[in-house]
Write a structure and sequence with these properties.
The chain has eleven helices and 13 strands. By secondary structure, it is of the alpha/beta class. Helix 3 runs antiparallel to helix 4, helix 8 crosses helix 9 and helix 10 crosses helix 11.
Length: 304
């Protein structure tokens, strides 16, 4: 279907957060606890992601969940008993922090009954999203709020239409861990026009060292493409394959652009990076940072 790219853009208000994965890299911690609920300092990782969506103006959040993910819904719901206990104690600070997660956005949930990959998870959002552009945020990537990547991506989508993906320059030897983009410069220094995408290519076959990271702003045409996308790498329906089809044929749903991100990103999908994310975020907290940094310097000096 050819879209009129000159018509006024629809303001984007909906965010989709796939959260149906099993978190096997963090076993046994994730045997009974969703990986998205693992704490990063004193908040679960998923709360950082929802906060990012809300900060970018996306007040309608759909979470794609699966079996054993009920704690996600509980976290963003009211806990009247706990709130009353804190209220009776006069602990207004903790009460505000508890209520923050339930008040920040309108939350919706749908189950991905059959875990068939990220593309399939996004396709599960079609009835909720409808014929509107929307954002997708993956929970393993935490973006520092001082580097508003998602807001920039929404701005680019409003200016240029189509879909926008987040890209990060990585060491060429690591590109096999990511989807990789072939791209050309545009008039904006941080924006490229994407012409091809490959999911986790061998280093010697990658089109560039521009890696796709977990933020997308998608034209609803992606649903039509995903519904026709055959299982790809790993036997799963890959979102990268659908975006590759959109980048190859603009008439399907507009162009695909990438925002090349140079800010602070915390990867919580790997155990080592998860620990580093906690240390970095704790060091930067006003309430924890000074004392924690002093302890850390002493620990490194004395123990290492």
């Amino acid at each position: 279907m050819v879209r009129d790219m000159t018509s006024p853009r629809t303001r984007i208000t909906k965010a989709v957060i796939p959260a149906a994965g099993l978190g096997t890299r963090f076993l046994p911690a994730t045997k009974a606890t969703p990986k998205e609920m693992l704490p990063v300092v004193d908040k679960p990782a998923i709360q950082y992601v929802v906060e990012e969506a809300v900060a970018a103006g996306l007040s309608d959040v759909l979470m794609i969940t699966g079996r054993n993910k009920r704690p996600l819904e509980d976290h963003f719901d009211r806990n009247y008993e706990l709130e009353q206990v804190l209220r009776d104690k006069g602990d207004d600070g903790k009460l505000a922090r508890v209520q923050e997660s339930s008040d920040m956005a309108t939350m919706h949930y749908v189950r991905q009954g059959d875990p068939r990959g990220l593309g399939h998870a996004v396709l599960c959002a079609a009835p909720h999203v409808g014929n509107q552009p929307f954002a997708v945020l993956l929970g393993d990537d935490l973006i520092d709020p001082r580097d508003p990547l998602l807001s920039r991506m929404l701005e680019v989508q409003q200016q240029r239409g189509g879909s926008v993906i987040a890209l990060l320059e990585v060491d060429p030897g690591s590109i096999h861990l990511y989807g990789a983009a072939a791209a050309a410069p545009t008039s904006d220094n941080d924006v490229v026009r994407v012409s091809d995408l490959v999911e986790k290519p061998p280093a010697d076959q990658a089109p560039s060292n521009l890696a796709i990271i977990g933020r997308y702003v998608l034209d609803p045409a992606v649903f039509d493409v995903l519904s026709k996308t055959e299982p790809g790498r790993g036997g799963e329906i890959q979102l990268t394959d659908a975006l590759q089809a959109l980048s190859a044929d603009e008439s399907l749903g507009g162009p695909v652009h990438g925002v090349v991100f140079k800010g602070r990103r915390y990867d919580t999908g790997d155990r080592g990076d998860y620990l580093r994310a906690i240390v970095r975020l704790a060091c930067e907290r006003e309430d924890l940072g000074p004392e924690f940094r002093e302890w850390l310097r002493g620990y490194v000096t004395e123990e290492m």
